[in-house]
Amino acid sequence: MVSGFVLVALLTVVSKAVSFVKDAAVAGRFGISDELDAFMFSFGLLTFVAALIGGGLPEAFLPLHAEVLHQRDPASARRLAVQSSVIHMLSLFAMAVILFVAAPWIVQLAARGFSPEKKTLAIQLMRGLMPFMLCFGMSYQLGTWLRADKCFTAATSTPMLVPVAILVWLFAAPGPLRVEVLVQGTVVGALLHLLALMIVLARKEGLTPALLLASLRRWEPEAKTVVQNALPFLFAGGIFSSTVVVDQTMASWLEAGSVAVLGYTDKVCGIILAVTAAPSCDVLFPYFADKVARRDWQGVRRQLFTSAGLILSLALPAALLLCTLAPWVIRLLFERGSFSPTDTERVAAVLRYAALQIPFYILGSLASRVVVAMQATRFIVILSAIGLVGNAALNALLMRTMGAAGIALSTVLVQMLSATLACLYVLRQIRAKMNPSRSTTAVVKSDASRSSPSSHRPNKKANSRRRKKRK
Fold this sequence. Notes:
The protein has helices spanning 2-30, 34-54, 57-71, 74-110, 116-128, 130-148, 153-157, 161-172, 180-205, 209-217, 221-251, 258-275, 277-293, 297-324, 326-334, 341-354, 358-373, 377-402, 404-434, 436-451, 460-470. The radius of gyration is 26 Å and the shape is globular. The chain is 86% helix and 0% strand. α2 (34-54) packs across α5 and α13 (277-293) packs antiparallel against α14 (297-324). It has 471 residues and is mainly α. The longest helix has 37 residues, at 74-110.
């Protein structure tokens, strides 16, 4: 587990480094222009949809895959993985058709602060990025399948193909750069990402066309359970993950460039999250699922406390340092070309607040993985609803006086509340499962005392017999 965490952390750092080279190149070519604003809006919306669907079926699939693997056999677990992937692919295609048709209405409703020309461009970019959404969404399912088998290398390293492809398209494009170059590079990179995962899985699992067809002829009963469990996860993920879309939508109501400012801020915070939250969740989730499948609650609690303590000891100082050095960090990463010193001041002012979410995000992510492994769907839905309502309300309250910085501060407060509630729930559930006999004994005693009146009243016949014997 430790070696997997170190490997994922190192690969994620390399991937983020490549991604930041791409972001610096994009910032130098486009700054915070209207073209980039429209692209980041469309890209963020489709990424949200792909992550939303990817947070449904894959999240429900992994705990059931662990149960089938431990309680039955690897062949059944492989059939379940193939069938879940097919269901996931069909759901992505259906969503892509809906979004392609409804793109004008979505942009008109969500980006009301955009000019008419900017809205038209956002519609074109959204439709052009549909293949990206399909490939990116399927990569969630295949990556989860690899992580379920403790294969972290391919699942973590292949995402860097997307920024690499964008960089190639940026530097190889002839003539003046247009935002369509970003669309082409993004689509090609997502396709390469998906193909790489498919090749790794085919070699690791020995998948052939005949084996895939055979896996679809005999459907596993757990496939129905995956779909049933995916609906609450999908609903909860849609509620909670929509906070990103809510932030971008409400930022579009502010001054021009606010959406891009939030985008750059999220990318900087992603540096620390990339080496803390992402590796820990990717690596620990299958181990949490295994321990829950074995009913090893003591191991779940020990693993949660140990991993949270180690990761927070690194993330908290890094978050405080990022708040202090925000202007210098933004200047170093982005200030070149069209990205001016004024842009640096705007992004740094928002980053000082956004960096405070890092420790709460990590803690909440770890606790939520245990909640998902326990398949506590009802709590996940409630927690996500609280997060969405709180985020929207705090955005509306704080952005009036603080602008985009108010949206960042709202995210911090929501992450803090969500992490607290998730940790309290997990610890309470583990305590109840570790001591089931105490509550059961108490219930049995109370039921016995209510159903047996002789335990409270003396037996008159028995007392009279004792008196006669004594006489």
